[in-house]
Amino acid sequence: MTTMKTAPAGSSKSAPATDRVFNFSAGPGVLPEEVLRIVQQDVWNIGGSGIGILEHSHRGKVADQVFAECDADCRKVGNIPANYKVLFQTGGASAQNHLVPMNFMPAGTTADYIVTGHWAQKSFDAAAALAKFPGGAFGTANLAFSSKDKNHSYIPSKDQLKFSSRPAYVHYCTNNTLYGTEWHRLPETPAGVPLVCDMSSDIYSRPVDISRYALIYAGAQKNVGPAGATLVIIRDDFMEQGGRFIPDLMQYRVFAPEFSRPNTPPVFAVYVMGQVFKWILRSGGLAAMHKHNEAKAKLVYDVLDSTKFYEPHARADSRSLMNITFRLPSDDLADRFVKEAKAQGLDGLKGHRSVGGIRASMYNALPRAGCEALAQFMREFERKNG
Amino acid sequence: MTTMKTAPAGSSKSAPATDRVFNFSAGPGVLPEEVLRIVQQDVWNIGGSGIGILEHSHRGKVADQVFAECDADCRKVGNIPANYKVLFQTGGASAQNHLVPMNFMPAGTTADYIVTGHWAQKSFDAAAALAKFPGGAFGTANLAFSSKDKNHSYIPSKDQLKFSSRPAYVHYCTNNTLYGTEWHRLPETPAGVPLVCDMSSDIYSRPVDISRYALIYAGAQKNVGPAGATLVIIRDDFMEQGGRFIPDLMQYRVFAPEFSRPNTPPVFAVYVMGQVFKWILRSGGLAAMHKHNEAKAKLVYDVLDSTKFYEPHARADSRSLMNITFRLPSDDLADRFVKEAKAQGLDGLKGHRSVGGIRASMYNALPRAGCEALAQFMREFERKNG
Predict the structure, then answer these.
(1) Chain A interface disruption, residue of B33, B46, B55, most A CBs within 10 A
(2) Which sequence positions of A are flagged as catalytic?
(3) How many other CB atoms are there within 10 angstroms of residue A355's CB atom?
(4) Mean pLDDT, to the nearest integer, of B15-19?
(5) pLDDT per residue over A190-228, tens digit each?
(6) Are strands B346-347 and B22-23 parallel, antiparallel or unpaired?
(7) Could you tell me the domains of chain A?
(8) pTM recorded for the entire structure
């Protein structure tokens, strides 16, 4: 409800507040400090209502405004076409893993999955597990590709994708948080096949052509808000194809009217998401966000490319702007890296056990100064231990 | 993470902060002001970590502590036996309406539903709708009772309940938010039949014997927190009976390990719930909360009983301590009541359209002074308009 004017994200102030650290967590992750300051006020009393945002009825005027603005701002940020709905759900991206096939992979159909990492694998597994339903209620999940052969260190080329003849949809995940890889193009899918995408860890980090997708989903807790809300962007005609025998609250169409309030929604998480959309708009939108994120990632990739001390996990053409993964000469050194970085106010750098080493997550809200500090720390650490 | 000492709830200060009003919203509803002050700090920087509660990894040390304390405090408040799990889920009580029968009403079984209001009806409808699944994956829902004949103004007697021969479970709802009725005893169910209960609007408003239930669920947004988390208390042996062919994230057992984090949980909503549990404990626990709520409700019921101007909806023996519903001689007068009350800082009093008139919701966190002010306003309003 509060409005502020600020400089573009790229020129944001050079250090966090003195009682805050640089947060490289893979998610839930860093939020803009401006947004946190607004939240602090609105938790007590939002818009002069005498009631905090946590305490307002989800059917009242304040919630109406929060949801309408969140929808409008989400559309403005993503330039979302009018024939798409923006839905605010719960359960995280993980719940979408079964909701998508329960809606769109009915008995007798096949859905294709491109697996480029841990989360894409989970999406495929959840679709495949529907075969356990008695009575053959659902269709079949087909593995169109997996990069497991090289521990998910790369994004496949066009000729590596093996689609089934007429898939109900193709599912992929744009950014692989654990492995630090990211799609920099759309997968080359058969003409006319609906494309479904898990964008949890890079949504709104760069411009996106929504019109190429039938359904996009994203857990909010990386680039667009706190844990507790799931953003779904869905094309109207695809939404209407969804199964009608599954429970109402599992059908996307039920969330479409009145800004996703068929039941009590996660008001606060949606409210924070709305504040993040406003912050993106004030910061210059997705083009500015992309430039900001490219510049940040370059600071760290430049260090990786200048030495053999650090070993990047992702193949060079598959590198993520959101999560940078690399190993050190030994596990002991990696542990020391994490500890010493934390002591210098660089938090959350420990890599996932499936890759080891270091993972630096650099979502929209991480200031450029955080990446400068990390790059400098990496050079220093190499000088002392290389 | 912050600890505070305060006087019992019954003696809480007589008025809200000058920039806050008395909030009679049916939910999401009022939270303790002490809790909001703690939230304001922790959103910026929790426990000196340099990172706010919205930005911490759900697998990190801060989240570990938040979830462990929330679990422990929830158990302490409710005196929950060791053979029960406390689960923190999403989707609200409405999602439980299909999750319960999908887990516990397998093909060939019947589950009995006692319908005493809008939400109990929705629970029954969601269970009955599972008949639409192809292949007969689920069982049958049986209506054991409905108070629809008198617009849900009463709680049934023992002899009005008509159970099926061997139900898989009996489901009921303790407090009927829209109608202002509440169960003041357990329903007399057949011996050995698991009892499932929606306690969304009166959980932890009074002592509860958890051991009588197989499963209790509650949307957090009335007595125990903000919207966005659902509290589930489930007996171990019952949990293990749950269906294994439904998606993992729909199986209760999947939430049991590691404090409900099979996927990214709604960290903030659980954190606030934990702060509310601490507040209940500081306020003297459920016995004190019950006394506090009885005293508050009496202030308003005494006005209703002293006049014919206001017409209570609930039968006297079925009155709720949480939601008081009554009508005025005309709709115009009711509208004026709501407007004038709001002008005096008494917010959220408009009744639900299915009952009309006024609904005053008086959850744990509503101070006694709010009920005193409402009772006084009611007397004044009658004097001027009676």
Answers:
(1) B55
(2) 119, 198, 222
(3) 21
(4) 72
(5) 999 999 999 999 999 999 999 999 999 999 999 999 999
(6) parallel
(7) 9-33+285-385 (3.90.1150.10), 61-281 (3.40.640.10)
(8) 0.95
